[in-house]
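Treating backbone geometry as a discrete language has practical consequences that deserve illustration. The amino acid sequence and the backbone structure tokens for this protein are reproduced below.
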Amino acid sequence: MPSRWDHLFDLKPVALIDHLLDEVAKLLAKDLQTWPPPVQELDLDTGGAFASLFTEPRPRPAAAVYTEALRLTRWELTREFDALDEYVRNKRYLERGLVSEDRLPLLFLSRWLTEQMLGLGEATEGRVKRAHMQNCLERLEARLRQATIQA
């Protein structure tokens, strides 16, 4: 008679990096449920432009803002600075269905996500590479998409 645990022996082991990326994506998705997402500290010299996101009540940005922020973060991680510069300078986000008021939340989310990914690399002493970070963003995007569908 088979045990109720027998199916566990048939499962493939999950690589540690895959488990880590899943957990990070899950934590980031949870952080992104609130607006604005949690920030440990806001340096007004470098992030002062974003202060109004924390001092003035604002509605949560549309799902498209999160999608575009993930796009910008991918470009940042792959060092596609020309694409990033061209996108922002020429306001390509307007072509993606965003409005002018979405610019600040878009840039904030992009910076926030980039900092989260780079912080992960630092916390793991470089064991989580940029390719892993890209993979983590894909997992995060899938979670956000699923949350949007369920909402």
Summary: The chain has one domain: 14-31+48-150. The mean pLDDT is 91.
